Amino acid sequence: MFDDQDDEEKQKKWLFKENIRLQELSRNLEDERKLIEIQMGMLQRQQSRNMLLKKQLEGQKNLFDQKWSILEKETRQLAIDKEKFEREKLMYRDKVYREARRSMSNAENVKIFFKGVDDSDSLKKRYKALLKIFHPDNTHGDKELLQAINTEYERLSRFYLGT
After folding, report:
1. What is the pLDDT of residue 99?
2. DSSP letter, residue 115
């Protein structure tokens, strides 16, 4: 009987200790569960922040894409406008040159081309230089002006040759 009582005491002690150990484990598990819940809450808040940041980033990307497309469109338009301006500038310059030559084609203005010529050699030199400049085959050549230069050259060559 003594042994049974001892065994029973040992069993009670063991059960008591086991109960304490299980309660301790239960508290530890409860603490770990609370810690996991806190971490899950933090993770969810971080995920919601990440989603918000992702939406903001997408909005900024869309805005950037819109600005970029506007910039590309305006750059293309600027290139087109520049080409148009260059063409108009060349047309205007040619028009001004033509009008200047037309105004010079009358006999009095053509005399300016041969100003300072005193002999037939300098007259020929000047005439050849003028032909190179104002020949109609050149980009800025003018037929009317060349005819006026030819007329003045013939008049001056007759004068220097005495014919």
Report:
1. 72
2. T
